[in-house]
Amino acid sequence: MRRREFLAASGIGLWPASPTAFAAQNSPPADAFRAVGSRVRITGMKVFGVSLTPDSDRPYVFVKLETDQGVVGWGEATLEGKAGAALACLEDFRDFVIGADPMQVEHHWQSMYVHTFYRAGPVIGSAISGIDQAMWDIRGQVLGLPVHQLLGGPIDPRGVRGYYHADSEDRDELLRLRQTALREGISCFKSGLPEYYEWIGTRAKIERAVRHIQGLREGLGPDIDIAVDFHAKTSPSVATIICKEVEPLNLLFIEEPCPPENVKAMARIARRTTVPIATGERLIAPYGCRELIEMGAVDILQTDINHVGGITALWKVAAMADASGISMAPHACEGPIGGLATLHVDAAMPNFLVQEICSGVRPEMKEKVWEEWFGFPAMRMVGGHFPLPEKPGLGFELTEASLKKFPFGGTRPMARVFHEDGSVAEW
Amino acid sequence: MADLDITALDAWMLHEPVSRRGYCVVRLKTKSGLLGYGECVDASAAEIEIARRVVIGRPATSHEAVRIQLGRVPHAEAGVNIAMLDLVGKFAKAPVYQVLGGPTRHRVRALASLDGAADEDLVSSLKARHAAGFRAFAVPLPTVMARNQGQAFAEAVSRRFDKLRAAAADADFVLDGASSLTPGDAGRYAAAIERFHLLWFDEPCPLLNLSAVRKITDESATPIGFGRHIERPGEVQNALREEAVDILRPDIARHGISQIRRMAALAETYYVAVAPHHEGGPIGTAAALHLAASLPNFFIQHIPVPTAEADRRMRAELTGGSLETVKDGFATLPTAPGLGITVHEEALEKYKERA
Question: What is the pTM of this model?
Fold first, then answer.
């Protein structure tokens, strides 16, 4: 006798063995939304793993939704270092997507999040993000408006202020970068820290980090904003020492001064320095941002549209942050679909600060591929601002054929780095 | 100048003839000739003029940019926000809730306030509203006679709910405190009525010192509602952080659709539902229904019910039809583009407040 039958037979099976036994309405009647929904239905979902180089650690994960009206939508679910998991998770959501009315994106977001039971971590969050973006792309096209207008923007008619990365420690190179920035209207750069740090810092490492940040200010000058990404390589102790030393440089922000799990540790760093603290690129769903916002300790949130839950979730997080005077500087270090999607949301945020793109001031192979795909230089600034896509939806066209040149090279781990004694280091 | 650019803003301050319930109707016009309607609580001529200067020449889609610029005239902002979303929906040929990512639900649970002060009056009001299709009702507290009260008041509250429950077995109730108690008294009575399993106890006291207010949710299991007097989202954040609120009650005609959506995003992460307050006119009701169908964490919509025939006629003349009709406790979602209502301008002129 199986356990369930035993319980039933013995009369102690008071609780249903499966949740459906209690559920009078496990799913709404098929026509429940007929009178109030749209006529558009999703008829197909295709997922793509796209490796720009065969050994890429972050193959793009794209999702394409097809509808019975001929409109298609694209979204991005790239999860760095875990491409295979993101691709598989998108497939797991197939039943949530096929037959759905893409106009009711909030409803489907809730269903994907709540009915997943475990809520969302980065894998599920990325899959929801990709589907959400693709539904918004369809929504905008059906409604005849670019997504940033559906969200009530643009607030800044010049577009979306952005920054490039600049990791040089060479004075002459930084001086040349300054000249380029002044000529092209670029107002901000971000750099990393030069080494890996243990949870207590040796004097040599701390002083080199401080010198690196000072060198950025000396090379780039006083009128260009500088952000420094600690990338969670530092502990609260080490980060605080470096922050105190660089306070006189008036940085735009320092980013992820410690890993994201312990919000109180992050808040403690913020309390001990005047340097604005940014974090949040690894947070999933508005729920994942609640504690950080509630504490009001950090200055800037950097949630990523490809992980936090797409346009729906990024918009909500920005609204939540705004109630506490917290600014938004969304992370973008994956592919161009999420990048373009995030511009739409940025444009409608009253508390928007600046948008990242993991590119240098000069376009390289990646940027050239993006331009080939879209027919315009996606995620390249003009006068220090990303131009807003003006066509309905996310505002671009992409063909499956153009992706075929970059077949999926498989999942590759992100950088694995170790300290000099062989112990595991954060990068 | 693009087709969706706003070329005119007009406003009418209306009062219902008998109840004197008041609301301001805002109308925006685009270059292409679309008309969008919104509603707010009383906005002065000066506030409307400020709104006019900001909004004219702006595309109807820039509702978020306009919302920020109207921060110093929040009431007018609420009306303008609703009217801009009406325009976007009409342009896109979709109901506002679809523009906003809904529908999240296909019907909207409705709440009606009961009229009267004495238990007998409330019971007959309950019977009338129940017959009209409502199943959830907001009930006033017995008259508060002193800053702190004792046994007699507790018994009066219990007696009231005993009688109401006897009159309608399938009814749910909200106790409306109208900010009339002290936090200490509110906690005591919130605990005393736990056994009635009310939907919630609304505005039991003014939302002042949150540590004091929090005593209510600490001392009782009765859910507590606040929000109709809240001015800014930061106050919502504080009330949520202090665990002082179980159901958020922003006012549709004070806060508008977009501002309430932003408050609702905060509330969602605290597992707190939203039940917008509404004591205005039918355009506000339409806006609230669209808002409800755009939110994941909506619970119930307060719908004003006119008692006097003249008031009922005025509401019907304004927007016609069955917008505020409730069946089995639920209102029906409009399905036409924008707010999905037709505003009859001759009624605006007819009921306009005389200067």
Answer: 0.96
